Amino acid sequence: MKLTGAQIFFECLKAEGVEVVFGLPGGAVIDLYDEMPKHDIRHILVRHEQGATHMADGYARATGKVGVCLVTSGPGATNTVTGIATAYCDSIPIVVFTGQVPTPLIGNDAFQEADIVGITRPCTKHNYLVKDVRDLARVIREAFFLARSGRPGPVLVDLPKDVIISKADFNYPKKLEMKGYKPTTEAHMGQIKRAYKAIAKAKRPVIYAGGGVILSSGAKELKQLGEKLMCPVTTTLMGLGGFPAPHELWLGMLGMHGTFRANMAVANSDVLIAIGARFDDRVTGKLDEFAPSAKIIHIDIDPTSISKNVKVDIPIVGDCKDALKKLLQLVKESPIDDLEKVRKPWLDQIKKWKETYPLAYEQRDDLIKPQYVVEKLYELSEGKGIISTEVGQNQMWAAQYYHFSKPRTLLTSGGLGTMGYGLPAAIGAQAAFPDRLVIDVAGDGSIQMCIQELITAVENNLPVKVAILNNQYLGMVRQWQQLFYEQQYCATCLKMAPDFVKLAEAYGAVGLRATKPSEVEQVIKEAFATPKPVVMDFVVNPEECVYPMVPAGAATTEMILV
Amino acid sequence: MKHTLGVLVENQPGVLSRVAGLFSGRGFNIESLTVAETLDPQISHITLVTTGDEMIMEQIVKQLNKLVNVIKVIDFREVKFVDREMVLIKVKAEANTRSEALRIVDIFRGKVVDVSPNFFTIEVTGDEGKIQAILDLLNQQGIVEVVRTGKVAIARSRKNSTKK
C-alpha cells in the first residue's frame, strides 16, 4: 500500500520514538498538520519558530533524546536559524523539518520560498532537501541517526509541498549506508595507555571537562576517575553538572568568569586532562599562557576539536564515556603508588587558592544582589531544579551560584551565546518532565527576546518559573563598558521596560516582584508553590558586575577579582 | 606553502558548496579547485590546492573528513603524486613574432588550437613549473588572456608493489 509523504513522515517519527514536536504551521506544511491528528504525537504550538528550535534544544539537553521541530517554508524556516546555530555550537541533537515550496517552483522566488538548505549549511551537522517522496523515509532515518550519533548536532530536512502530498511505498530502512560518515567512538587503547602513563607521573594534574561528558552520559565515570586519581576537576560552562559541585575535588568553572582556584590550578598544572571540551577562547584566554607547563591530553569524539586552538600532546579520539571507562580500567590494574602522599602538596595548594579568593559577593540590606537570588533559588529548590539561563550576567551568576550536581540540569547557550534561549528551553525541558521544577534564570534584556513563548507555557500547562534578575541594563555589555570603555553606557540602558508582573498576568501567568532582599525568599517560595508558569521580577542592584573576570585576550591568571 | 588535496565526494547537488563553504567559513584559502565525476558516476573527485601551515592543514583535512558527503581525503603531503594543469593562452601573433611563438609552443609540446590574423590560442599541459615557464616566455610576445583548469593530481602507484 502506498502512503502519502505526510503519512510516511509520521510513521518515521513513530519509528524514531518521537513523543513531542514543537512547531508552527503554514502553507507549505499544512498537509502535515492535516495528517497530524491521526497520529499519536504531541504537538506544542509555539508563537515564533525560534522558540520551537530552542524548545526542541532544551528538550534534547534535559532528556538526551533528539528534539524535533516542524515549521513552514520561507520565514518559518529562516526564523529557526538562530536556534539551529545555538544547537550546532553546543552539539545538541535536534531535527528541524521545514516546509518548502513545491519542487517545480524551487528557484523561482515563489511565495514564502527561502533556500533554507543553503542558509543553514554552515550551522547544521548536515541538511537535506527531499526532492522525491521515495527518499523521504531514508532521509528522515539518516537525519535522526546523524543528529544523535558521533558528535551530536542539528540536522535540517527541507520538505517541498509536492513531496508531502505524493505517494510512495513505505519501508523504514533498518540499515543505513553512509559512505562518508563513520564516527570513531571507541577510544584507541594505545593512546589511553600513553595518557595514563603521563597521568601516573603527574604531580599537579587537573581534569578539565566539557559538554562532551554530559552528551556521552559519562558523569558517573568522570566522578570515579577524579576520585581514583585524587585529581581536581574543573568544567566548562557546558560541563556544569558533569561533576558534583559540592565535592572536595571540585574547582568550580574555569575561564573568563571561572573561579580563582580553577584558573590557577589549570595555569599551574603539569598534566591537563581535557575531556569533551574544545579549548574555547572564553576558557583559554590568551593561548600562549594557557596551561603553559602542562602536558595536554585531549579526549574528544570530534577529531577537528583536537589541536584546533591548543597543540595537544596526547590526542584520544572517541566517545568520552568509553575513554573514561578505559582509563578507569587502567587505574584499577595499576594504581598510582602513595597517591595520597603524592597528591597532598597539590591539593593543599588548591585549598589555599580557594581560601584566598573564594567566590563571593557583598550582601546588602537595601538592594537585592543577583547572586543572592541565585543562591536562594539553589537553596529553596534543594539543588534539584533544571535550570535554563538566558545569556549574559544572569547566565554567569547561575553558573557560579547554582551548584549543579547532576548532568542535564543546566540548559544554557554556551557556544553561540543566544539571548532569548532560556524561556523556550525551559518550556522544552518542562514538556519532557512535567513534574520537575524548571527555572529560567533570566535577565531583563534577554527575557524580552522570546517572551512570546510565555503563552505557550500557559496554554500547555507547563509551569516553568522565570526568575528575572532585573538590573535595567544589558548587564554584561554594561559591565564591559564600565571596565573597559570608560563607563560610557551607550545603548545598554533598559530603563524603558514593561512591567513584568503585569506582562505575566496579561499572558495568563502569575507575576511576582521583589524589590528588597527580605522579599526574595517569600517570592521564590510562592512561585515554587504555584502550579502555573510564574514570572518573578527581582529588582536587583543595577551596577553589579560578574567577578572574577578575565579581560578578553588576557591570560586566565590575570583575573579582576572584585 | 601550497598543498594539494584529493577529495572523493558523493556526486550530489550542494556538495561542492559544502566544501567551498567550509573553506570560506573557516578562513582557509582555495588556490584552485577542479571537480569531475570518477569512473563511478555516484562519486566525484575534487582536486584542491590550498595554503597553510601544519596546524591549518591538519584542520583542513579533518574538517573535510567531517563533512557527511566526503568519502575520502587524500593528503598529497603524505604520498607521491603526479599533478597536471591545462592552460589555454591567447597570445599576440603578428608577422614578426609568429614564428617565435610557434617555436616556444613546440618546445613546450603545446598545441595551437585556434589561429586568427593577430592571435594564436595555445593549449599546453604540464606541472606548475612548466606552465609558469611558458607563461613567462609567451608574455614577452604579449599574452591577451589566460584560462587555467586548475591542478588535477593523482597518487603514483607503488613501484615496489608485487600485486598486478
Protein described:
The complex is a heterodimer of chains A (562) and B (164). Chain A has 562 residues and is α/β, with parallel strands linked by helices. In chain A, 37% of the residues lie in helices and 17% in strands. The relative contact order of chain A is 0.11. The model of chain A has no long low-confidence stretch (mean pLDDT 97). By secondary structure, chain B is of the alpha+beta class. Chain B folds into 2 domains: 2-75, ACT domain (Alpha-Beta Plaits); 82-153, ACT-like. Chain A, domain 2 (Alpha-Beta Plaits, 2-Layer Sandwich), CATH 3.30.70.1150. Chain B has 4 helices and 9 strands, in the order E-H-E-E-H-E-E-H-E-E-H-E-E. In chain B, strands 5, 6, 7, 8 and 9 form a 5-stranded antiparallel β-sheet that branches. A 4-stranded antiparallel β-sheet of chain B has the order 2-3-1-4, with helices on one face. In chain B, a hairpin with a 3-residue loop joins strand 6 and strand 7. Chain B is elongated. Chain A binds chain B through residues 117-118, 121-122, 125-126, 129, 146, 178-181, 302-304, 307-308, 311, and chain B through 9-10, 13-14, 17-18, 21-22, 25, 55, 58-59, 62-63, 65-71.
Q: What's the short version?
A:
Chain A has three domains: 2-169, Rossmann fold (3-Layer(aba) Sandwich), CATH 3.40.50.970; 189-356, Rossmann fold; 370-539, Thiamin diphosphate (ThDP)-binding fold, Pyr/PP domains (Rossmann fold). Chain A is built from 22 helices and 20 strands.
Write the layout of secondary structure elements.
The complex is a heterodimer of chains A (562) and B (164).
Chain A: E1 2-4, H1 5-15, E2 20-24, H2 30-35, E3 42-45, H3 49-63, E4 67-71, H4 75-78, H5 81-89, E5 94-100, H6 116-120, E6 126-129, H7 136-148, E7 155-160, H8 161-165, E8 167-169, H9 189-201, E9 205-209, H10 211-215, H11 219-229, E10 233-235, E11 250-253, H12 260-267, E12 271-275, H13 281-284, E13 295-300, E14 314-317, H14 320-333, H15 339-356, H16 370-380, E15 386-389, H17 393-401, E16 410-411, H18 422-432, E17 438-443, H19 454-459, E18 465-470, H20 475-484, H21 500-506, E19 510-514, H22 517-529, E20 534-539
Parallel strand pairs in A: 2-3, 2-4, 4-5, 5-7, 6-7, 9-10, 9-12, 10-11, 12-13, 13-14, 15-16, 15-17, 17-18, 18-20, 19-20
Antiparallel strand pairs in A: 1-8
Chain B: E1 2-10, H1 15-25, E2 32-37, E3 43-51, H2 54-66, E4 70-75, E5 81-92, H3 98-107, E6 111-115, E7 119-126, H4 128-139, E8 143-148, E9 152-155
Antiparallel strand pairs in B: 1-3, 1-4, 2-3, 5-7, 5-8, 5-9, 6-7
